[in-house]
């Protein structure tokens, strides 16, 4: 998933970019509206983050113009303007509104939620297979060879994403999003606990491995 971040404060832009990229997203950045407009003209994004007060003016007016032209990408506004009137104005054309100062992990969670909203859920395959692992959605069952694994609902959801990847690494953020709501931060250890449980249930030889700095992979 790809995110555009438009923020004129250099330190904040770097911090937000690092946090969103660290959560597994592809990220482009802009310091003002003209650069953001150029990026939007050549790239497809799942979410756009705009500081409201930029050197070229209020980004709300820019988003309003694009909305009237049929632009649908979810927008999160960042701003120090926290009055009720400002929030109402922002939500008239944006999809979320975060007041400065804010926690970066909360911003990442909100971005993840908006990206999910912009991407239709693919039809789930009723069955998936990777080597000796097989998943049956109708039975809510995962088997390793002839052995049925006793998985929780969250473990099953994570295994579905891993199996669908077919041996390719899956980012932490994607695995967390598959089993928890958007308010679970990518840095939370809930996924690590679940992965440890899955490894125990999958048995030997180990097939679920850590990809440092990315997430997990069946290999």
Automatic annotation (TrEMBL):
CDD domains: trans_reg_C (cd00383). Pfam families: Response_reg (PF00072), Trans_reg_C (PF00486). Signal peptide: none annotated. GO terms for molecular function: phosphorelay response regulator activity; transcription cis-regulatory region binding. Residues 125-219 bind DNA. Keywords: DNA-binding, Phosphoprotein. One of its GO terms (biological process) is regulation of DNA-templated transcription. One of its GO terms (cellular component) is protein-DNA complex. The modification 4-aspartylphosphate is found at residue 51. Residues 2-115 form the Response regulatory domain. Residues 125-219 form the OmpR/PhoB-type domain. This is DNA-binding response regulator. The lineage of its organism: Bacteria, Bacillati, Actinomycetota, Actinomycetes, Pseudonocardiales.
